[in-house]
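Q: Structure tokens for this one, please.
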Amino acid sequence: MPLPPAVDAPREVYATPTLKEISWYADGPEGTRPLVLLHSINAAPSVFEMKPLFEHYRAERRVYAPDLPGFGFSDRSDRPYSPALYAEAINAFLADVVKEPADVVAFSLSSEFAARACLAAPQRFTSLALLSPTGFSDRRLPSGSVGNALHRVFTLPGLGSGLYSLLTKRGGIRFFLRQSYVGEPPDELIDYAYATSHQPGAMHAPYRFLSGQLFTRNAVESLYAKLTLPVLVIYDKDANVTFDLLPGVLESHANWHATKVEPTLGIPQWERPTRTIAALDEFWRTVEARAGADAG
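A: Here is the predicted structure, written as tokens:
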């Protein structure tokens, strides 16, 4: 199935000695503080998930949006996808493509990857905004052995491909999007999710996701609580995650902030784009004001 561009913007591809081809889009005026948008991880994610933010901000800022490994136009080969791989890809993108500190906006599970990347190279981040982030639930994740066993099941000949085919039928995509959307999800979201999930190798990274191997155990303690840069969480309700541990992080870490954009069910940038953009703008104004005060 042909895969159209996720956004109407120039697209390029790059690779590093340890990373295979990564596709990325960029647009907006040069010389402005860069903004990097990171899509989520699920059975059918893409840069299309970040389209409302890309289209809004490219009028005023240089905006970058990569296809993370295993998705979009990036390499989708069968390899060990892991949180470390995604953090490495994010940092390589910031270092080799963006080349200066950036405001980063991450969606859902990519929030954990962005936090991991920031801990490894904080100098590449100006701020971090997390849309409906994972990692704040008090529910325990499956053990590594359970995840490995699930992955073996998913990759059994016939069984895994049949499951993935079922999940990525138009009806299946619409069903899951309805759980994460106030009202009826737009057809364009469903159409692009269907197209991107029907590319060669499209199931390899989702198998790792579905088996739980891309989540970080105790993400609050091991990732989020260690961040020292300004962080914003935009959230409300979510069919797939909870935010049980978020109040404790906000109370004990002055660099963390949260805005409840409601009513939303997990995709605020599509469900309530105006309110999401307003929350981001207010956060960045605060970041700039504090940076100016510190410099003075």
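A few notes: The two ends are 55 Å apart (CA to CA). The beta strands are 11-14, 22-27, 35-38, 63-66, 102-107, 125-131, 231-235, 256-260.
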